[in-house]
Specification:
This protein has helices spanning 71-83, 92-107; strands at residues 4-15, 30-41, 44-57, 63-65. With 111 residues, it is α+β, with helices and mostly antiparallel strands. The relative contact order is 0.21. Bound molecules: zinc ion. The site of zinc ion has 9 residues, from loops. InterPro entries: Zinc_ribbon_15 (IPR031493).
Length: 111
Amino acid sequence: MIIYGSKAVYISSKQSTTSICPSCGTQGSLKLFVFRRHAHIFWIPMFPIGKKGMSQCQHCKNVLHTKEMPVSVRKEYDVLKNKAKGPIWQFTGLGMLIVMIIWAFISTRNF
Ligand SMILES: [Zn+2]
């Protein structure tokens, strides 16, 4: 049995100063969060499969997913998302695979 799935890891956040909460109307209350998902097999991260995000109002605690964000919030989120870099360890499985392929290549050659 192979245990696999995906997991989202927090990578960045930013307090928005210009956006207005669509739920309670407070300006500058939204905090933006960026996560990066990675596929894992037996809990070993293999490779990243994309970023996702959300915002939370610090005033009324209303959570918005990227699809529900007003255009202005979405723009600010996209800027943050494009700047945010995920951790290198999310490539662990891919790195191991490359090492194994190189090792297999070297060990099958007759010197
Ligand atoms: Zn609010």
